[in-house]
């Protein structure tokens, strides 16, 4: 019988894991107990002295010896063990192909409750779908082909790469699979960055349909996995608010918020992004949707545009703020606060009486308390009053795992500015 290394936590470090948190950090480990490969000698060592190979399957236990789950060890990472299941390692490794097939099937079945076969959505959302470090986007293009974009962002997912790809091919039967392992987070896991087609190469430029809008997506060179699918339903809500409005769509990326506003009957839409490549894509999407008469793209820094429009006395009925994460760690929250507050304050000043502000943050570290507190202070400093009419998050293809707060990152508030 195969013996798997056992990771024992320090006293009381099991509390979060018991509640569903899927990571074990290096400073939470008391000792590791494992058997030598070449003999039956048992070692009981600290993490630093441990000779268990990175990528090995381990079992995690409380300090008192209660079993918590099975994971993959990576001593190169601060996240030393990522838990892959609550079953014992012997059960998982008896047939890992079948084990990961069921995980992928479960994720697919969950999405089918909300999306049909013509939709594009996130198929697997890492820890929230119990496959730590794995991101899979499912794109359905207008030629009726299904593409997958995959990211193996942790050693725990890389170890089971073949099993995961096998399951994806059998369940989804994609026309093409593109690997976007060009994320710097892989370096923290001791993994190299790379990108490319898995199997036969296809055209990376595809056109998807979202909320009756057609959008060109570059799955090879677009940001992260090519397109931000998490705001789909929030963009649809913007379309409902846009009829007859003059709209300013900032940090637009592909123009998706602005195009939903156009589709909803906006009289004018200005979409702004600092990236020339993004603006080129927006212009293509404007033409795709025959929106040239009412929508235009502007290549400029959003902070500068907001200042300039305020100085000129420009006014809008609806403004969308969907910036990138201003902070990706807890240390820079105050700096991020200043950035979020500035754009929100200036947007409030640019709105007509009873105008609508749709403001977002995709930073987990800038949590709801900071976010809604910032909106309140921005309103105070701009001499406005705010009614928050709706609070949204990511779509159901980004499920929130109880006990893992990092899975709830997106905040989207719909506000009336008085």
Largest sheet: 7 strands, mixed
DSSP helix fraction: 25-40%
Q: Per DSSP, what share of the residues sits in E-state strands of 2 or more residues? A: 25-35%
Task: State the end-to-end distance.
Answer: 70 Å
The coarse silhouette is globular
Identify low-pLDDT runs.
Answer: none
- Summing up helix and strand content along with how strands pair, one would put the structural category as alpha/beta
Output mean pLDDT.
Answer: 96
**What topology, given as strand order, has the largest sheet?**
2-7-6-5-1-3-4
Number of helices: 12
Considering the chains and any ligands shown, give keywords for the structure:
418 residues, alpha/beta, seven-stranded mixed β-sheet, 12 helices, 21 strands
Mind explaining what this structure looks like?
The protein is of the alpha/beta class and 418 residues long. It contains 12 helices and 21 strands. The chain has helices at 15-18, 89-94, 96-111, 155-158, 161-172, 185-188, 232-241, 256-263, 276-288, 302-312, 333-350, 368-381, and strands at 6-9, 23-25, 29-35, 42-45, 57-61, 67-73, 79-85, 121-125, 134-140, 146-152, 176-181, 194-198, 205-210, 213-218, 246-250, 268-273, 295-299, 316-321, 351-361, 386-392, 411-417. The strands form 4 sheets. The chain has a 7-stranded mixed beta sheet with strand order 2-7-6-5-1-3-4, with no helix packed on it. It has a 7-stranded mixed beta sheet with strand order 17-16-15-18-19-21-20, sandwiched between helices. Strands 8-9-10-11-12 form a 5-stranded mixed beta sheet. Strand 8 and strand 9 (134-140) form a beta hairpin. The radius of gyration is 24 Å and the shape is globular. The N and C termini lie far apart (70 Å). The model has no long low-confidence stretch (mean pLDDT 96).
């Amino acid at each position: 019988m195969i013996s798997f290394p056992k990771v024992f936590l320090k006293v009381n470090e099991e509390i979060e894991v018991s509640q569903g948190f899927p990571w074990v950090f290096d400073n939470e480990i008391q000792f590791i107990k494992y058997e030598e490969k070449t003999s039956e000698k048992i070692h009981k060592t600290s993490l630093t002295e441990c000779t268990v190979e990175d990528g090995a399957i381990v079992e995690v236990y409380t300090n008192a010896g209660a079993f918590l789950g099975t994971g993959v060890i990576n001593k190169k990472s601060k996240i030393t063990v990522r838990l892959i299941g609550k079953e014992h390692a012997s059960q998982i490794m008896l047939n890992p192909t079948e084990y990961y097939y069921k995980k992928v099937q479960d994720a697919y079945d969950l999405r089918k409750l909300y999306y049909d076969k013509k939709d594009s959505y996130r198929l697997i959302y890492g820890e929230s779908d119990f496959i730590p470090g794995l991101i899979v986007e499912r794109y359905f293009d207008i030629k009726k082909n299904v593409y997958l974009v995959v990211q193996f962002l942790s050693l725990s997912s890389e170890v089971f790469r073949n099993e995961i790809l096998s399951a994806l091919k059998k369940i989804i039967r994609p026309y093409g699979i593109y690997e976007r392992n060009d994320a710097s987070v892989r370096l923290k896991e001791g993994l190299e960055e790379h990108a490319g087609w898995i199997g036969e190469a296809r055209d990376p430029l595809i056109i998807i349909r979202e909320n009756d809008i057609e959008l060109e997506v570059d799955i090879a060179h677009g940001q992260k996995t090519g397109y931000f699918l998490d705001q789909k339903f929030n963009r649809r809500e913007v379309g409902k608010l846009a009829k007859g409005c003059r709209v300013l769509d900032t940090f637009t990326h592909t123009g998706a918020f602005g195009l939903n506003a156009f589709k909803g009957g906006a009289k004018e839409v200005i979409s702004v992004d600092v990236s020339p490549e993004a603006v080129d894509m927006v212009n293509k999407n404007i033409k795709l949707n025959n929106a040239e008469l009412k929508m235009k793209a502007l290549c400029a820094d959003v902070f500068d545009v907001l200042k300039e429009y305020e100085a000129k006395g420009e006014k809008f009925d609806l403004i969308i703020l969907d910036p990138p994460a201003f902070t990706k760690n807890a240390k820079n929250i105050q700096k991020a606060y200043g950035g979020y507050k500035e754009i929100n304050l200036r947007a409030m000043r640019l709105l007509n009486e009873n105008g609508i502000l749709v403001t977002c943050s995709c930073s987990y570290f800038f949590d709801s308390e900071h976010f809604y507190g910032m909106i309140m202070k921005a309103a105070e400093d701009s001499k406005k009053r705010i009614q928050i009419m709706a609070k949204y998050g990511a779509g159901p293809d980004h499920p929130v795992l109880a006990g893992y707060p990092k899975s709830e990152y997106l905040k989207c508030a719909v506000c009336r500015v008085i």
